Description:
It is built from five helices and six strands, in the order αββααβαβαββ. The chain is of the alpha+beta class. The protein folds into two domains: 7-95, GMP Synthetase, Chain A, domain 3, CATH 3.30.300.20; 99-163, 2-Layer Sandwich (Ribosomal Protein S8, Chain: A, domain 1). Helix 1 (18-32) packs antiparallel against helix 3 and helix 4 packs across helix 5. The protein starts with 17 loop residues before the first helix and ends with a strand.
Amino acid sequence: MSEDLDVNDLPEEMPEEPAERVRALVDRVLDELELDAEVEVSETDDEILATIDGTDELGILIGRRGQTLDALQLLCYRAASMGVSDRKRVTIDAAGYRERRREMLEEEAEIAAERANRNGEAVRLEPMSASERRMVHEVLKDRNDVETYSEGDEPERRIVVAPLIED
């Protein structure tokens, strides 16, 4: 892996299409990390999704609690949004991490709700990203026995699941 990125190594022009910008950026990161992986990019009216799979272990790309993947996703969003008025959400997934994490958060949210009701006390979940907090709020929003809110400052911001006390 090269020690430093040199501006002369960057493409002179980014692709014109936002989805192709995402592909180019992800491909470049995979090359720099020397990962044997492929990226598949799909696009809907409101989202660009890049899915990365390969024979190499993609843990280095995912990072601790998905932080490296989140950083790459932010870079890709910024690249895709340059000079574009109609911005789309950009999601980057590697080795199915996002789906596994979503399932785990849904389960964790339900367990926290049950525990909050059983003990009559608020349950504080682990710190998580804004998108993960949104997922937990969404999972529990239709329950009439708990409320959720976020507390703390980034990067330690977390969800609190509290029992609703009847009057």
